[in-house]
Amino acid sequence: MAKFSTTKTSERQLATQLRKVARVVGSIIDVHTDDSGIIIDPEALDAALLAYSDALGPWAESVTAKILNSIAASNQRAWNSAAVDLSEELRRTLNTTSVGSTALQLQNEQVALIKSLPIEAGEKAQIISQQSATGGIRANEAAKRILNLGNITENRAVLIARTETAKSNAAFTQARASSIGSTHYTWVTAGDADVRETHAELDGKIFAFANPPFIEGEGFHGPGNIWNCRCFADPIIPN
Fold it and tell me: Which domain holds residue 95?
């Protein structure tokens, strides 16, 4: 059953690349702060982070394309393994189903997320600076928070990597399921202590792709389609 889970390799590869972005963001912030961690020129910092965000576009497209190709290939292998009992016609349909449009949509979303990392860091820096200026927080605390923005951005990058690889795998699974008339799936968790309690309650239950369950605090979504979720759909293959 674990054959439809997200590959850890893809998650690690994307996380590695996004950590590079986080480190550059941290260095840009460092250049624009003084020894006490106070922003020297807020407008210059914003301009530098915006320029870096814009420059990330082509690189982000290349990185996400490679990762998505890897996830799509792994998902195809999972389907090939699960389809041994399918008719020859359905197997042929699976093998010829294109997930190109799904991949393009996912890539556009992921590129936007990657480009948002510097912008988010800049917004956080400005908020901290304003709080310090108005007395909302002490100057030494503001300095600590600004100097820590690189680490915060790296944590955000790792979260994006896990969430987006799982989301991509879920989208490919659903696209291929639709091509052969599979309308329902079994919700499967990672099966460890880190699984959300609300998700553990769904483990083994059957849902329609078109009608995902409502989860308190998260809304309606399927497995792998929300932040930090490692659950996945095991499609119910038609006879």
Answer: 2-180
